[in-house]
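User: For a reading group we're discussing how well predicted structures match intuition. Take ATP synthase mitochondrial F1 complex assembly factor 2. Before you show the prediction, I'll give you the sequence so everyone sees exactly what went in.
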Amino acid sequence: MWRSCLRLRGGGRHLLNCPRGGLTASRGPGPKPPAHARAYAPPAAERKRFYQNVSITQGEAGFEINLDHRKLRTPQAKLFTVPSEALAVAVATEWDSQQDTIKTYTMHLTTLCNTSLDNPTQRDKDQLIWAAAKFLDTDTVCCRVEEPETLVELQRNEWDPVIGWAERRYGVKIGSSTSIMGPSIPARTREVLVSHLASYNTWALQGIEFVVSQLKSMVLTLGLIDLHLTVEQAVLLSRLEEAFQIQKWGNVEWAHDYELQDLRARTAAGALFVHLCSESSAVKHKLPQG
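Assistant: Thanks. Here is the predicted 3D structure of ATP synthase mitochondrial F1 complex assembly factor 2, as structure tokens, for the group to look at:
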């Protein structure tokens, strides 16, 4: 039994034919494409919007996204189903906010859901944990410079407090190093943080690894997920040396600003994805007052 949960406004756009390839919305029962055609690959960067309305329905497996009367599917043609209504609303908002063209490179939540559903690299939970934990060996905030003194002081003033918070929060020793080999992370520290990551489900771990890979830092990611840092703070701390160089040598017009905004968007989406996947989220609909 299907239950209609939400319908988003479509903006009165004309209904176009569904394009081939990439993320698709199914028309209903029918033959599946051959296996080689369902290989996981990023969809086209932009394409025409082919739907007017976005809605959500709930089935036995979770929440689904509908583009008009078509059900959204992943690049491998699996039914696009997410575990919480809140995540479904966030994804539906991404699709509804597209204008005349669908810019999939801006739809980070949809991409993370596709990765969780299709698992194109066939990684299990332990592999996801170690993929994130390996960044400890080259963590941005742990790898320091020896000169110039102004940058050394900047790194110490901005990064040491975050490391100190993480050490107190998890009861571990992290430290920092100027060695080209990176910091020497104690075995117990690694065990504690790996155990902490293991408390998350597989979907949330996909989001955590995504954020870690954006910030190049496990410490900053933990600070962000634990709400110790804002997205803006985490991103600026991850780009501290670059910001120092820009201040010294100047900014490349538009290029650095674009990179900064893109990194903020990716990091924010990843953090939101983790939180929406870490709990049984439900949208509370307001009842009309009598």
